Amino acid sequence: MTTAQRSHHRTARPGSSPAPLARRRRRSLDARLLYVLPAAAVLAVLAAFPLVQLVRMSVSAVTSATLSTNWAFVGLSNFVKSWQQGDTPAALLNTLVFVVIVTALGLVGGFAAAVALRANTKASAILLGLMVFVWALPPVVNGSVWKFLLGDNGLFNSVFHLFGASSFPFLYDTRFALLSVALVNSWAIIPFNALVFRAAILGIPEEVYEAAQLDGASPWQEIRHIMMAAVRPTTLVLAVLTIVYAFRSFDFIYVMTYGGPGKATNTLPFLGYLQAFVRYDFGLGSSTAIIAVLFVIVLAVVYARSVRKEELD
Amino acid sequence: MAFTAEPHQPGRRRRRPRLRLALVAGAVAATAGLILSGCSGSGGSSTAGGSNTLTVWHYFSDPNQVKVMTDFAALFEKDNAGVTVKNVYVPYDQMDQKLIASAGAKTGPDVVVFNGADASNLALSGTLAPMDSQWSSFADKGQFPSSVIHKLNGKTYAVQGYVNLLGLWYNKDILDAAGVTPPTTLDQLDSAMAKVKAAGKSGITLSGLPNSQGEWQAYPWLTAAGFDLAKPSTSALTAGFSRVAGWVDKGYLSKESTTWDQTVPFQKFAAGDVAFAENGNWQIGTAKSTAKFHYGVVPLPLGSKGKVYLGGEGEGIGAFSKNKDLAWKYLQATYYSSKGQLIALKDSGTIPARADTAADSAVTGDPLIKPFAESVSKMGANYPGTKVPPASVANQQLAGGQAWSSVLGGSQSPSAAAAAYKQQLDQLLSAK
Amino acid sequence: MTSMQPGLGAAAAEPTPGGSVRRASPRRSSTRRRSTHRRTPIAVLSRVLLFVIYGVPVLWILLTSLKNPGDVLSDKATFFFTPTLDAYANVFQSGGLFEALAQSFLIAAGTTILTLLVAIPAGYGLARVGGRITTICLALLIVLQMVPQTANVIPLFQIFGNWGLLDSTFGVILADTALLIPFAVLLMRPFFRAVPEALEEASAIDGASTWRTFRSIVLPVARNGVATAATLVFLLSWGEFLYAVNFLLMPGKYPLSALLAQQVSAFGINWPGLMALAVLTSIPILVLFACTYRLLREGLTLGAVK
What we know:
The complex is a heterotrimer. Chain B is of the alpha/beta class.
């Protein structure tokens, strides 16, 4: 199809009136949209269908008994029930705290690590390699390691004991459990952000630094004015990816605290898991998952809009 | 100057597209190869490959427990020529979900070995086949106590071939050094822990996870204080929670227990610095291989009202099995037979469910097994509680575990946790 | 100070006389001037800090893999214990390690190939086409990433059951592909956007079809992005375990990630075994990472821009 359309423009000379160019662009727009078809087809069958099922489940009464039969439509009562039981508001709050911590620490830590490792030396490469290796380890391994390190007889508390202090309840105090897991999750995602930030920083041309040197800029000013400005577009993409990552985070909580102590580390994904697979109320669990999806839709729209706006500049 | 995609050299133009073509062809061939290799596994092998293959799903990864499965497979294959038993490992956390998902696709294993507490949920989801006709014609059915038979709406779906339950493990060396004997009452336990603590050791380890494991470990102490699932009372709950909260306050029990499942407490006990562990008979192998001190077991000192859940795996026939008769034959020959139960006892320390097997010298003569077997008859209780409607079982266990965990962690006072749990129980027990 | 758009220069194609397209060499001069600021105490301190907070857990993993199970939780044996290779021996003895390794490789390679096959064109299409439909597609791709994996298992089980794909490696590959397509598309799109339109227009003027242009011009220029996405997809599908464990129904078909889960049972976590297996599972990853590290490092520059 494209060849046929092309041949009719082959005779147009470059540099002639813009109209043929525009027409060609519009036509090639349509053509290139078809490139999205294979992905759309795969996703439509294998990803959209489960999403539709999820939405349907969230507005139906589905338990283990009724899973294979017809689902009774119950409107928003799953959402209401979860809210009234006090589970959703608490989980929502925990999730927001979690997301804020992981995003802030992940981005700031990633940027700081990128700045610290910006040299193109072997040492930096090895250190970065170590960090990315850690990122690639499965959460059950990372989570277990930190569960030990933060335990009463773990590394940190052993040091505290040496100084005569008592054990610090990292993972079993209601005030600190969520913070501890959020910190560990940030630790796990920092390497990915560092890698991307570093790549952006490495692309800054030499002349910019030379100009700054001539102006007598200190290292801090270099960081603030050159590097931070350079990574601003990067920060948007990474912020979105990190926020989504934090919103979905489940494995670390599962391994380290199982939502406890009590319900202190119940976030939306964990609550959804408890409701669907421990209490076998799939309708309830789906409604919790949908709440998380709704929050991210807002984020997704903001991202998509701002990306389009930047590209149209 | 016009840019060109490729230099105008005839030879080069011919070579480049060929390279690309080769790459694409290679990718397609690789993908095709993967498809073919992948598809070779499907087509009927998801359940029984024929009338001669029996698939058994289980979640054991401990070598001792896996040995039980392989011994059973060998036993059955020996007596049934031409039959192959395929033991399929499914991670514990995934077992129920995988069963439910496969039932949704109308497929599944022939035999299921699952967590007995999940029996009602698995039956409700249509993953288990009723076995009333087979069970009623089973000659030895009288040997099994009713507490190990799992029914739903009057139909039998699973029976436990063996029982796992909790006892009080003790470190004899620590007790001797503190001048204490293994306790037989709750007060003796309290004073023993006080003396042990004064001697510089920890009192007790147990699991405080906010889930069914926590509820399972909480039940003995709650019932000892008078709690009854059939008629829950807030005062009994408060008393039970208060006693254990007292242990935390006095330093006998660490708050960190809220992050422990049942294995970490026992590993800590086996490492030698704790006097007591509320743990189960399945740890016998671990104790043998890890503990470097003298240890023993006594029944949990619960008094007259205390009860201990009879846990352990339940065995059932898959709802979509194509070989239900063969599956029943397997169960009869292994889990429900005296021979099989003794194999399980020897391999992994599980307590036989059959009365005749429980009287065997292998049980009564073993100082570690005997206390557990005594507890079965003296204070064993159905797990899950019979008064809890099947659809509410999971909720009840979760609510109990969360209350238990919040008491141990100090986020709720015993009376607040008791009130919250009682409130949820009222709703759950009256639901249908 | 000026706000720069770095990265565009790093891997953009530069025409050279003679007509063929070549990449400019990246980062020619960035190394020289940093040395003055690299040795400041804060810089050194932060590098040491990073080394500690990422090195200590790795060290802990290694140490634990060499311990006896009894030593893991004992207070006295944290650093001083008699090392043993029992855990590693057990992993090899319990068998199935090499089958699992082959399965992991099959699943990861298959997923990578299939994902790239559909995501590359999609990334390109969404990069060049503008308007509302792209906005919707981008938002959809993000939303799809939010569906919990566990919520996908039951519907996919039904689909695969209907298609006879249960207990087949290809089924797992399909499921992983669907899972990773949004990530791959979002990651590769900026690379396609960074290909200068001028190149494509020139090629079109010469009479090349869109497909030809895509194949011969755009792909080579964006190959860093493709390599980056490929490596990440490979790593992610190598570690994927939920679909593998649920859709494979016979012993011997589980990949390494499921073997890892086997160390965590209802009755305990085999700490030395878990850590030993984690170490062993990571070796292929390390090898892959070493090979593609350079590509990853350079390639992610472009992705960072938009």
